Amino acid sequence: MADGMSEKVSITIDNQAIEVDPDKNLLEEVLSAGLDLPYFCWHPSMDSVGSCRQCAMTEYADEEDQHGRLIMACMSSPRDGARYSLQAAADFRAEIIEGMMISHPHDCAVCEEGGECHLQDMTVMSGHTYRRYDGTKVTHRNQNLGPFIGHEMNRCITCYRCVRFYRDYAGGTDLGAQASHHHVYFGRYDDGPLESEFSGNLAEVCPTGVFTDKVFSKHYSRKWDLQTSPSICAGCSIGCNINPGERYGTLRRVVNRYNDEVNGYFICDRGRFGTGYVNDDAVRIRQSMTRSSQDADPVLVSNADALQQLQDMSGAIGIGSPRASMEANFALREKVGKANFYAGLSQQEFAILQQILSIYQDTPAHIASLKDVEASDAVLILGEDLTNTAARMALAVRQSVRHRSFEKAAEQKIPLWHDAAVRKLAMDERSPLYILSPHATRLDDVSETTHICNAGQAARIAAAVASRFDKEVLAPEKLDKAEQALVKRITASFKGARQPLIIAGSNSMSLPLVQSAANLAQALYQKNELTQLALVGSEANGLGLMLLMEDSQQDLQQAFATGTQSAIVVENDLYRRAPTAEVDHFIAGLEQLAVIDNIKTRTGEQAHLVCASATFAESSGTFVNYEGRAQHYYATFKPVDSILPATRWLAPETSLATLTQACSQTLANCAGMADLTPGQDYHYAGLLVPRQQFRYSGRTAMRANKNVHEPKQEQDPDGIMSYSMEGVSPLKEARVFNTPWAPGWNSNQSVFKFQDEVGGHLKQSSIGVRLLDKRNSAEEGGYIALDSSEKNTAFPLYHLFGSEELSAQSQAIQARATSAYVAMNPADADRLGFNAGGGVTVQGNGVVPLLLRDSIATGSVGISVGLPGLNVHDVLPDVSLEPAPQWQAPPQWQPDNIIVSDRLHKLHEQEGD
Amino acid sequence: MSEMIATTKKQSRQLSAEEIREIEHEKTHYPYTQAVGLEALKIVQKHQGWVSDESLLAVAEYLDIPVADLEGVATFFNMIFRRPVGKNVICLCDSVACWMLGCDDLKAQITSRLGIEYGETTEDGEFTLLPVPCLGACDKAPVLMVGRETHRHVDPENLDQLLNELQRENTKSKKTM
Ligand code: SF4
Ligand code: SF4
Ligand code: FES
Ligand code: FES
Predict the structure, then answer these.
(1) How far is CA A583 from CA A63, A531, A575, A597, B111, in A?
(2) Which is it for the CA torsion B48, B53, B56, B58, positive or negative?
(3) How many CB atoms lie within 10 A of CB A202?
(4) Are the beta carbons of A638 and A618 closer than 8 angstroms?
(5) Which helix (H) or strand (E) covers residue A624, if one does?
(6) Global pTM value
(7) Residue ranges, chain A, pLDDT below 50
(8) CB-based contacts of A288, cutoff 8 Å, min separation 6
(9) Per the database record, which ranges form the 2Fe-2S ferredoxin-type domain (chain A) (predicted)?
(10) What is the pLDDT of residues A738-790, one digit of tens each?
């Protein structure tokens, strides 16, 4: 947490001399030195509170001191020249754990945590092996915490990590510590789903089996029996690093994979619980098929036939996708030729992403990684509903407001790792966060101001701030008194900031907003060279797709305009990109439509040829995240033979590595992709990196119910990992960093063994390559003239659970999702004659419910994006709605019970009165 | 759409004007409404005898603090009752001094006379019996408390007398009602 670097001091631990950072706590430094010391309540991202008493050490007053005194390592600053002992406090630590375990049920055999349990590891490490207590244990009633997280309170050791993460770190309000002494209880007030979008992290933060991944529990496997790989979340443009696990051909779970510059220790619930579609036969395409005409029944075909048919499609145009890998898009581009390759993005999204790419190339400001976001001390968010569009960034922004508390603590000489003290000292004093949004957001509880306004107005406010930093930017008109005051406050905050940050993105669907974010960053940069800019997209590889387009302007509307008779679409449902009628018209005009996809889509349903492609879990490739960071993901398991990676459909003879290299050589700005994956010389004695742990069980027996012959190990033609237990584990060479494990450290806590220091860089692993980092920032672009044609009569509303195509097809996510709706301010509804509680007819989309919210900008209407029942492209930008007073809410429709950005349940009450 | 979000299915009740008045008064003493939580619970308990789910929700809503927070406060303090208690809550000290001087016998006496164990309430809703740790009057052990009243040097006779009195008052107040 400490910003500056302090001189190291030397201490001795059991006569071993080590150099330590006096600004860190002793526990961190002991672990960083590679020593083992048991702990529970301390967490590298949440620092110390000293509540578990497990990390005891002995500190000696001087050379003469024979007895020393017990200290809690996590609550102590290392003292220069001091002598410490781990061994001398060993008995105490064993007693502490014995005390903690008094009521523990000891049910490891049926506990989902077993085998990767920090409590197991620490118990063994502390040497406590026999429990003397034989009295009655405390038992608790467990709660139903919703579709994501299981609850087994009896296993609790009261370390308080769960509430510290959920409340202090992630801002959740519905999980608390209850009761006292031996019956402390961690749960909600009442049964019900955990509301935080980051609740899944509880499964990793809790060192015991109290909070577990409920989806995983339903189809459980021990950690050591999972086949895993380093992967990247496909849920949004952040590109969190994940570690999916497979057994018996099904994807069982997703856990966080550490990357200090991106997701650190945490991911969001879309990423963790949104991959169920991979296993779902109702969603997946598992075998290729053909149709004689668009409405004929499909006929299954062999891979060879399907490949032949694809081969025969000459003169086809290719439509790429922001949810397909760089390599898949590139293979399509190669197949159809650059002139015939179209981005598969709506005109608007294309224009905004293209603008973002050019801003990134021109801006003098630094493109902020999530680590940079966290390190920023004054933040302005323009129009992005981060919690629902780029959730992990919202969590990082939530940390950024804590800078003020660190400053206060430093003034009082309180060590920054002293979490409880630092938080108490600051209470609700925070570093400034300003949000300009057409609706209330989930970050409003920590913002200095959330100003409700449409995108156009937000762009003007940003321009006004910019004009105060650089006279070249013209101050806009049309700002009222309140807005002028806001401009003043933002300006003052930015002036006082060490590292200001501006966030915008494509999800607001407003080009001028993104442009004015860039202008503001540029103006600010004149005064502060640490100025940061982050422009998020919506899908995993949106920016990558734009890199592939190079100077081409070919968006989806242009593809439609070609009047082509033949098209190949890779992993894209056109109905999510353009007005329904336009897609219908385009498809009707095609003689040949080939769709390569891993899920069933409306586009695929009309294709003449559908090729079954692999999901992220079954194939390898590269995604480029919002900051231009290329990251490679490795297939977790091999799908059935009829499923091929999209790259194999499009370039059957070319290996993935060749495609990756070709991208790096062919595409402007993509040279860095060459460094993403280790080359052939990486192999240690010719051995691959294993996907299975050395404890993997049942290798010869797991399929014996079908055939007693042990099948040959699956080969991976695409990479340097093997589908087997053999090879050199990542212990040896962490560049391909799979599941962390170290002797004595079976849980995810073992990751510190792979870091250069606790919470630091992974020693050797690839954290991705930032493609757009400028080598020389000499030439800077000028200010961008704002596009002034935008109307702002409607704005998009996103849901973390439901708005993204793939995760929305996962059952766990569906349990938390809702169907389409339109929302507006009650004042507008009155004026326009829409009654509360009724529905609205949306042009071409039937009737959807109308929600009235005070926290919505007047003069514009909010349209839900991606939820079933409404195609946003039919509605925007010229929205036309009719009242449908006769509309009756379906029984499952509970608008007050959906968690959305505007905290519906709260606002619902206001609506009632 | 199987499991939908419901913060809770339970409903809050309306706080009485008197409760609101007292809570508002407490609010003036603290910079953060969070801090008023405990006082507000005490106020509600004073008026209602205990803190029901409906009361808890009402206070949380009134102070605009998360109900999970308030439940944390309510359940941390043993003397905030989250279950209905009798009109007279007998808190019998069972710590060392009182134990040495026979609190077990007093407990047996109460149990046989009222038919309740620790943590139970008589069927007529008149008495609840709770064990409490040291009441700070060890020199006058054994000790018990009923309401705000501390009774020292309790023995079988004066305990009987005390219970007689309490029961008399109870029937009296019932009649006048
Ligand atoms: S539930 Fe888990 S994280 Fe929370 S206090 Fe108990 S053991 Fe710690
Ligand atoms: S959906 Fe986005 S924020 Fe969530 S885990 Fe995936 S990449 Fe990270
Ligand atoms: S880790 Fe140090 S007291 Fe818990
Ligand atoms: S032990 Fe009973 S009052 Fe102290």
Answers:
(1) 81, 42, 6, 17, 80
(2) negative
(3) 28
(4) yes
(5) strand A621-624
(6) 0.94
(7) 1-3, 732, 776, 778, 896-897, 899-913
(8) A300, A301, A302, A303, A305, A306, A609, A610, A611, A612, A642
(9) 7-90
(10) 888 899 999 999 999 989 899 998 887 778 999 998 754 545 668 998 877 78
> At residue A306, what are phi and psi to the nearest 5 degrees?
-60, -45
Q: What is the ipTM of this complex?
A: 0.88
B4 contacts A892? CB cut-off 8 A: yes
- Residue B66 to residue A173, Cβ atoms within 8 A: yes
Which of B1, B68, B77 is nearest residue A176 as measured by Cβ atoms? B68
Which residue shows structure tokens 């195609």?
A871
Which of residues 42 through 61 in chain B touch A, CB cutoff 8 A? 53, 56
Q: How many residues does chain B have?
A: 177
- The pairing of strands A839-842 and A881-884 is antiparallel
| CATH dotted code for A794-910 | 2.40.40.20
Nearest CA among A670, A669, A688, A668 for reference residue A678: A688
Q: Which CATH superfamily is domain B88-176 in?
A: Glutaredoxin (3.40.30.10)
Tokens for B133, please give them. 């740790």
CA distance A373 to A366: 11
Q: Where are the domains of chain A?
A: 2-100, 366-530, 794-910
Q: What is the pLDDT of residues B80-132, one digit of tens each?
A: 999 999 999 999 999 999 999 999 999 999 999 999 999 999 999 999 999 99
Q: For residue A665, report the phi and psi dihedrals to the nearest 5 degrees.
A: -85, -30
Residue A320 burial (CB count, 10 A) = 31
Q: A816 in contact with B at a CB cutoff of 8 Å? A: yes
Q: What percent of chain B has pLDDT over 90?
A: 83
Residue type, A374: E
Q: State whether residue A769 is helix, strand or coil.
A: strand
- Residues within a 6 A CB radius of ligand 2: A 233, 235-236, 238-240, 263, 267-268, 270-271, 390-392
Phi-psi region of A192 (alpha: psi -120 to 50; beta: other; left: phi over 0): left
Give the Cα separation of B117 and B131 in Å (integer).
Answer: 10
SS3 A847: strand
Q: How many residues does chain A have?
A: 913
Contacts with A65 (C-beta within 8 Å, 6 or more apart), sequence order: A83
Residue limits of CATH 1.10.10.1590 in chain B = 1-84
CATH no. of B1-84: 1.10.10.1590
Please tell me the distance from the alpha carbon of residue A337 to that of residue A342, in angstroms, as a whole number. 10
Residue A529 C-alpha, separation from nearest chain B C-alpha, in angstroms = 38
Q: Is residue A618 within 8 Å of residue A279, measured between CB atoms?
A: no
